[in-house]
Amino acid sequence: MNAKQIKDTKTFLSKPKNIVIITHWSPDGDAMGSSLGLYNYLIQLDHKVNVITPNDYPSFLCWLPGNKKVTDFSKNPKSGKSLVAKADIIFCLDFNSLKRIDLLGNEVATSTAIKFMIDHHQQPDDFANFMLHNVQACSTCELVFEFMQLMGHKKMMNKHIANCLYTGIMTDTGSFRFPSTTAKTHYIIASLIEAGAENAEIHNRIYDGNTEGKIKLLGFSLSEKLVVMKEFKTAYFYLTESELLKYNYQKGDTEGVVNYALSIEGIRFAAFLVERDGIVKMSFRSKGSFDVNQFARNHFGGGGHKNAAGGMSESGMKKTIQKFESLLPEYKTQLNRK
Ligand code: 5GP
Ligand code: MN
């Protein structure tokens, strides 16, 4: 954002507006944390603020302050459409392509509202009037923190916002361990704790609310569903729909499983493939120079970050695995590079 854009945004937000905040399909901790953090900030300026998600999200995120104000578009398309139609400004958080919000994408594309993207993923599409976009940011929550500063509202930070932003920074940095974690991340975290973020309690709420089914599904994945391909420094898990059913799968139960594949010594590329409603959703992670954003974009209609991305396939599990494995020789040199 340049100085003029900052000034224009300040002027725009200085009078009460109808604001809609939208985040990506299958929202994660950063998507919900940034959206509800921004929500808890903007309501202090007397705006009418609503958060819309394209579909539902894991129950371990439902304690976030403001959660009751969230409209799930897949369950309430009518009220979602009417909220978007009435909006003066639409904040698009933690995504940068309208493809990432499914049917909501049409509503946003045809809306006359100002569109404001706050995001840290690679290669943003050109649909927003304003962008606070930085691929170096560890999370969209970090950018929401900066947005409040740019608006001159640092003092409006409160415990609710701090809890939301802490959650997104913690989840997107793998609890402050990924290379995206910088000194700046820790400065922001320190200031969120000073503002009342309940850091230890947040770790509890996010990571220690596991069901028996989730832990058993993890055990099953680790012992039965891991494929290691040493030659390509690659390891992946795959789970079918019936396996999910057997372990009473709930949304969010497989989040983070992919990291176990990446934790094997020598592995630089990890994937997690899961089949639901006939679609194979894929999570990709890498260490070092191997660019999974590009891999996901080139082969599985997806995208994300250099070291964490996702994509999907409609060809069924067997064919998707065949395609995935057949692509690896093409990348052998890259995968063997540091
Ligand atoms: P995850 O594997 O945790 O679902 O996603 C990893 C990263 O890739 C996240 O930042 C997420 O927003 C992004 N991502 C996941 N799936 C997709 C996808 O289908 N398309 C795009 N563009 N990004 C994705
Ligand atoms: Mn994010």
Summarize it.
The protein has 338 residues and is an alpha/beta fold. 41% of the residues lie in helices and 19% in strands.
What would you note in describing this structure?
- The chain is of the alpha/beta class.
- The protein folds into 2 domains: 3-207, inorganic pyrophosphatase (n-terminal core) (Alpha-Beta Complex); 212-335, Diaminopimelate Epimerase, Chain A, domain 1 (Roll).
- Helices cover 41% and strands 19% of the residues.
- The chain is built from 14 helices and 12 strands.
- The strands form 2 sheets. A 6-stranded parallel beta sheet has the order 3-2-1-4-5-6, sandwiched between helices. Strands 7-8-9-10-12-11 form a 6-stranded mixed beta sheet.
- Bound molecules: guanosine-5'-monophosphate and manganese (II) ion (MN).
- The site of guanosine-5'-monophosphate (5GP) has 15 residues, from strand 11 and strand 12.
Low-confidence stretches: none
How large, in whole angstroms, is the Cα Rg? 20 Å
Query: Which band does the percent of strand residues land in?
Result: 15-25%
Q: How many extended strands?
A: 12
Give the CATH class of the largest domain: Alpha Beta
Mean of residue pLDDT?
97
Query: Ends: how far apart?
Result: 35 Å
